[in-house]
Amino acid sequence: MPQQIEIAGARVLLFDRSGPLLANPGNSNDFIGEAWSASAELLAIPVERLGPDVLNLRTRVGGEIFQKFANYRLRCAIVGDIGTAVEGSNALRDFVRETNAGSALWFVADMDELRTRLEAETTP
Fold it and tell me: Rounded to two decimals, what is the model's pTM?
């Protein structure tokens, strides 16, 4: 069961490390439904919950999933170490850098980094 927390005024839904995978755009409906039930604005999804193709940009699965979250105005943070995947893909490295420069999708190492980023948004 996801945990509802507040960080720097943002309603965050923190998912457990174990549970059904976010493996395709159809699975994203479950995550969206949970977010709506909790009135969350940001999903914090552990990297362990990602299906095997989500970080493989060639499959386009991740792009479709993250676009669906954006369409529903849900921000998303993938929490955990994706270093191995990034090392193996220049395209993924560029994607992570670009998304981390925005506010809709972030890849963060841990919850402390997510907290720091959210707090920075509220600091003038």
Answer: 0.94
